[in-house]
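[job 4471] stage=fold_predict status=RUNNING
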Amino acid sequence: MLVMLTAFSISAGAKDYYAADFGAKADGTTLNSASIQAAVDFISANGGGRLVFTPGNWVTGTVYLKSDVTLHLEAGATILGSTNPWDYVKDSYIGWTSMFFALRQKNIGITGQGTINGRGFETANHMVEYIHRGLFNDPLKLDRPNEVNRPQNIYFRECDNVTIKNITLRDPASWNETYDQCHNVYVDGIIVDSKSYWNNDGIDIVDCEDVVIRNCYIDAADDIYCFKSHSANHMCKNVLLENCVGRSSANGVKFGTVSKGGFKDFVIRNITVFDTYRSAVTFAGVDGGIVENILVDGIRSIHTGNVIFLRTGKRWGRENTSQMKNIIIRNVYAEVPMDKPDANYNYEGPIEDLPRNISPCIIYGTPGQEIENVVMENMEIVMPGAGNPLYAFRGTSEEELASIPEMTDVYPEFSQWKELPAWAFFLKHAKGITMRNITFKALEKDYRPAIVTDDVQGIKFEEVRFLEPESEGKTQIVTNKSTIE
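[job 4471] inference complete, writing structure tokens
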């Protein structure tokens, strides 16, 4: 499994232009959208170059980045999003709202040691006020504006050669940064603090090819490193994610949930996830797409609610065409807590799907469309144990396993089945599964066995160890309608 990647660079000879020379003011109050747009248009029309923001606070609404232009933020420069929702454009082609758009452009970027701060909490709440007054049309579901109407910090669509390097991104009103159907995307060394409002993803890669994300730190209210496929005619392909750290009130590394085309040829290595509410690794193929040829090599998951969740399904009445196969997950160390991992953050994940004891890792396919060829090796997974049958119970008889609902048409989350009958790993509707050199450790005695398989054909256990207090002689592997090689 090899990801071939294009070299990314910004021309060292690009000419520098200064935002102030186009009338923009770094006073923290002047709305500079028109001045910045004029600068971008001029630079693009005159051979390209960098638009430099010197130290200060530059306020703007929507700006469209153009070919051969890089925004360069010097240390101490902050681009502040306007807190007036009317200063942003909802692009008619993209269907979203953003501070910085780019549509069908090439050789663009945002670099430097400065900051883009969307001030999203203020902007979103001003929008709520306008909606209540009847000035803005929005369904206001759950008393929050729809995410497409709230401004992201960055949304680039169908662009070639995109470089985002070393900047800090803060507080969008919606998702933080989206790269959609782009080619040759390079994201390196960015810091993201994206937890000021609902749906604050860290980074969203949608149907892109040839992508490198490395050396990033992301603290997000929603998914951290999120790959999506919005089009059945496209997919996320040829992606390298490495040397990154993140925290989330949702998931760490996630494929989906929208997964129409799918995800292919990924290398994910040396990732740390901490204080995260849901799964460190979630691969969800529930909209007809494929998940294929994925290598995960090196995950450290500390104080995270779940470690591994692989799931296929058929949401929204779709045909059952989703496929997931040829996945390697290795070199994993994980600690799952008893408490809520994201407690006391501004926007926590919900307390939901109770009663249930702590959920295990999960590989759960769909009948007739099994998850295939998954190798998991060199892992140590520490679980809290302490599963209490008087609080929630699920047995391992054939009848009790059959009572677990398939739930193929619902939003996929590891907790959706409430109680599962294993404390370490539950596998269903899968084939060709290998577990090699893995230690599962429970800190307290659990009523459940460590591993339960149901309709799993061709599973291999090689050097799999179980450490659980007061459990000498306990059967730790229970199989049903399964074959062990």
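[job 4471] summary: The first strand starts at residue 15 and ends at 18.
[job 4471] exit 0
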